[in-house]
Write a structure and sequence with these properties.
The structure is a homodimer. The first copy, chain A, has 13 helices and ten strands. Chain A is of the alpha+beta class and about 350 residues long. Chain A binds a DNA duplex (30 and 30 nucleotides) through α2 and α3.
Chain lengths: ~350, ~350
DNA sequence: GTTAGCACTCTACTTTGATGAGTGCTAACA
DNA sequence: TGTTAGCACTCATCAAAGTAGAGTGCTAAC
């Protein structure tokens, strides 16, 4: 059977209506709409065809039709028209970003906040990943006899702290000197390169302080491979109550549990950060817990390198056009801000 | 009317039962209980008295009684018996803490996790506050022409980062030198003292780099007065679904919103960090949004100084005895860990 | 002071019936 | 051959009515 133009038009109308109202769309409702000159009976025939083709589903015999995941996929790929945000909304987004920024984490939290408020869905933001960053400075700070704080600062302004335990006998001035040496040798290198460089350039020191250097290398390593949970920021979890799908308290609880674990979210966003833009609808999601939802993600970058991603989790019945528009705008604002406050005109050039 | 021993015994039984089951307690239910040799009719009379005295409430005429906030207050102060956790549970708590710790934030997140799992309530943890900490090191890192990253490291191992904008003309080596000077002059001082010390000891530098030093002092200041939201870690928000009080979706939504704002939570915990232990029941809470809940908090400390607090938010009908026991144990474990890995044997002694 | 008995109250649950939105099918129409 | 009107049928939703059960307050007797 062919999906001719009329079928597409009707399917789009059904999806638009269902996204808006959330109630199954009946043939009469549709025939009464502006621009539809065909009778409900005809629409019923078309609907029957669309159902046969897998685009529509019926909750029960005497209810209207609802779009299937397949229909949403078609909608997203071909049918939907992207709305541009009103200038007012763009200003509103930029305004929120435009307050005094003292930490990069502020930016992340604000992003989550903006997205959830603008879309009324749950937002997720993956904090900048260290993988591709180059080092700016390493600072060792002696806390007590056996504990040393390692501060790893990248040229993108990210700071990670790691605590390592050392044999006593490392005094503060030695650590200061070492900090300077490490900074000098490792600046401009990626973390991976830094690990190797330490093993090559600090052979002498490694002999006398083997355990210390092992810990140090481990710290660097641990910084690259992030502990999934910590780099995820959630926003608007309360929006879960907007989804009729989660009126069932037990389901809602299970879903919140998944969100709280953050393990899945991290994997999803980490995957997503390889693509400019991605939309996963219902069963397309790789994880069972998400097969009832859709996930839309985008990435942000510094110097043209993708360093993190952000997105929206909601019911498959979400306003994809709007969500995409919002993410697009947020992405643009985010890139501007990030490149404005770090490294763009770094003194390394 | 006097609250004699029999009345207290009956009241305690009602509270115990209601905490356990969550359904209003009837006179017959109670009279059938082990250890009660009095008839339901007698109990009814006592109940009527207790209601008159304000300890009990009736949801409707033909329902059993439920305890009032006043009753819980009496229960907490006089009636309840603290249960000690089983050795198994103590071990379980310590086990979770006992994994590799690389950052102090890990400890905070784990604490929230442990508490919510052990009590089945929502947990809140206030990250260590900088107020009373002394400085260990200040490190200035030049990111680009106009941005400098300020790292403030306390002797308790806390690290705060602030980004400041500067006029160009500060080169990296000058900042390095300044970092060392600042560290030398300010080490061992509290942040408040440090602010003053800068104004005194760096007069010469301040003349040439006025704007920079103003930003620097502002950073220190901002570190002491924490941005409420960021220092709060929540755990087990999903447990909200355990409370029949929040079966009503709108109420649950409103409550989640309050939790997400974190503003209130911060104020509560900040207040609480002045007291060793505190229990606020229902209307005793200073904030309207919390008047349906009880909040139990405790503090943790380093070197005998309270530096943060943690607690549980739940319905007034919560198992106070157990919650107190759990918080007590978590507090002990937390103190041990924190003093073990920072500053206890600092080289300043 | 304690208890048994009884009438009364109120919630929660089940049953029943009515309503209406929506469908599929058939036959007639252009 | 595609479109439409008509009709019987299905099913969820809602309101009304009835039932069961837990619990109370009051009174009178022990």
């Amino acid at each position: 059977m062919e999906l001719d133009e009329r079928k597409q038009k009707i399917l789009k109308a059904i999806i638009d209506d269902y996204i808006l109202t959330g109630i199954p769309v009946g043939s009469r409702t549709l025939s009464k709409k502006e621009g539809f000159d065909i009778s409900s009976a005809t629409i019923r025939n078309v609907m029957a065809d669309l159902e046969e083709m897998g685009y529509l589903e019926q909750p029960h015999t005497s209810a209207g039709r609802i779009p299937s995941d397949l229909a949403y996929r078609l909608y997203v790929d071909k049918l939907m028209r992207l709305s541009t945000l009103s200038p007012k909304e763009v200003v509103a987004i930029n305004d929120i970003f435009d307050t005094k920024i003292l930490e990069i984490n502020d930016v992340i939290e604000k992003t989550a906040d903006i997205i959830s408020k603008a879309t009324n869905h749950i937002s997720v933001v993956l904090a900048p990943q260290m993988k591709q960053s180059t080092l700016k400075r390493i600072q060792l700070v002696k806390l007590n006899d056996t504990k040393v704080l390692v501060l790893i600062i990248t040229s993108t302004g990210l700071v990670k702290e790691k605590l390592i335990t050392v044999a006593s006998g490392l005094d503060a001035s030695y650590l200061d000197m070492l900090s300077n040496m490490l900074t000098e040798k490792l600046a401009e290198k990626t973390l991976d390169e830094a690990e190797q460089a330490i093993e090559q350039d600090f052979k002498a020191e490694m002999l006398t302080h083997e355990r210390f250097f092992k810990s140090l290398i481990y710290s660097l390593h641990d910084t690259v491979e992030p502990q999934s949970g910590k780099d995820i920021v959630l926003g608007g979890a309360k929006n879960i109550f907007n989804y009729p799908e989660y009126r069932d308290v037990d389901k809602a609880k299970g879903f919140l549990e998944v969100l709280e674990t953050k393990e899945l979210l991290f994997q999803m966003l980490d995957q997503a950060s390889k693509l400019e833009f991605s939309i996963s609808i219902g069963h397309e999601n790789p994880y069972d817990e998400m097969k009832q939802c859709s996930v839309v993600t985008a990435t942000y970058s510094i110097d043209g390198k993708n360093i993190g991603s952000f997105g929206v989790i909601g019911p498959t019945r979400m306003n994809y056009a709007r969500v995409v528009s919002v993410l697009d705008q947020v992405g643009k604002s985010l890139n501007t801000i990030l490149s404005g406050f770090i490294d763009e005109k770094s003194d390394k050039d």
